[in-house]
Amino acid sequence: MKGIYISGDVCVLHDPTDEDMPFLVRTDPSFRVESIQPGKGYVPKFQRLRDKKILLDRSIFELDCEELRAILLGSIPVSNGTEEKYFYSLLDVLFALASRVMSCCNLCGYDCRNNRYVNAGGKCGLGSKIFSHGEFIHIAEESVVNPALTINLGGCALRCIYCIEHKLWDTSNLNSIDPKIMWKKLKALKDKETPINTLEFTNPIESLPGILDLLIKAPTDFNKPIVLNSHMYGSKTSYEIAGPIVDVWLPDLRYGNNTCAKELSGVDHYMEHAKLGLEEMKKSGGKVLVRILVLPGHGVCCHEPAIRMLSEYKDTVWVSILDQYVPEHQAHLDPNLKRRPTKEEIAEVEKLVEKFGLRNISVAPETFWKGTV
Fold it and tell me: Which helix (H) or strand (E) holds 322?
């Protein structure tokens, strides 16, 4: 695990892994890794996209964004001639589209239009490469994605003053991802005794082109659902690119108004982007599990309006209430965030979820994968 935080009589573990199991069992003999899996025969969306092949009369990298979109939508005829042609999967086409976007990046809500092939500018600080802070088996995620084969990605467009992973903003000390090397690492983890349920990418929005490049090189028999654990500040373009490959959306909905989002994370028009994200996730066909990290002192201004907004999507989303907030980084700058949330604050968020008729993943997780093919 990355850290242990002690606050009063509460102990918060940051990213416990399968290697921490002996310690956890000694600390609490009743501890078990809970896991609800989609079932045998599951095929992740990216593999289905990879199986769909097309023939073209020129390279996909010679096509513009609109032509690539037309192919993905099935509205452009593909070649079926016998002479030598360019043969691609639809996953290749999606990667080509994502690569085009990076030359004038608009993946997040900042819409900076930075050419990431030229320089690592923009709010996220990323260029054409993506970076990992480490790969591990996370054993304390929600049961429907747990245990998760997790890749922590560097770079972020948000600057949350309480970010527990703020060191990942600066990628200069992180390793860039080589897909072939990464899959060797992932295979070694997958082959361990802990039964992997999902492949999870944290902070993925700004790194979507690199994620696609990694998935293109995945073993053909890799059959674990793809989970994107993301902020709610993505653009319409980011959802267009991510939608075809995401099996489980795992977004963090932190705020219920634009003022708190600006003060605590430095972003404008947060609520508009959160609403856009919920609409696009609904269209994508993937499962949606929205996390609500209980922030001390932000029940009325943030959690209540956020849950009210989520109630508009009660047939689409599940909700996960997180009680592990700890004051990190510059949390002391906000008078409320200097402390942990109280039991009463956590209970109030749980009551709001029930009041607005939302599905709490901790109450009926067995329904999550129901009907999945």
Answer: strand 317-322
**Judging by beta carbons within 10 Å of its beta carbon (0-12, 13-18, 19+), is residue 41 exposed, middle or buried?**
exposed
The answer to whether residues 24 and 16 touch, using CB atoms and an 8 Å cutoff, is yes
Work out the burial of residue 144: count CB atoms within 10 Å of its CB; fewer than 13 is exposed, 13-18 middle, 19 or more buried: buried
Half-sphere exposure of 222 (CA within 13 A, CB side): 22
Closest CA to 231 of 153, 172, 179: 153
Q: What pLDDT, in 10s, does the model give residues 24-47?
A: 999 889 989 999 999 889 999 999
List of residues 6+ apart from 82 with CB closer than 8 A: none
Provide φ and ψ at 111, rounded to 5°: 50, 50
Residue 354 CB coordination number (10 Å) = 12
Whether the bond into 335 is cis, omega within 30 of 0: no
User: How many CB atoms are closer than 10 A to CB 25?
Assistant: 12
Q: Determine the average pLDDT of the residues in 259-280.
A: 97
Query: What's the predicted TM-score (pTM) here?
Result: 0.95
Give the DSSP letter of residue 259. H
Give the strand pairing for 198-202 and 175-176: unpaired
Give 93-140 pLDDT, tens digit per residue: 999 999 999 999 999 999 999 999 999 888 999 999 999 988 999 999
Domains, the chain, ordered by start: 3-41+125-367 (3.20.20.70)
Percentages helix, strand, coil for the chain (3-state, rounded to 5) are 35, 15, 45
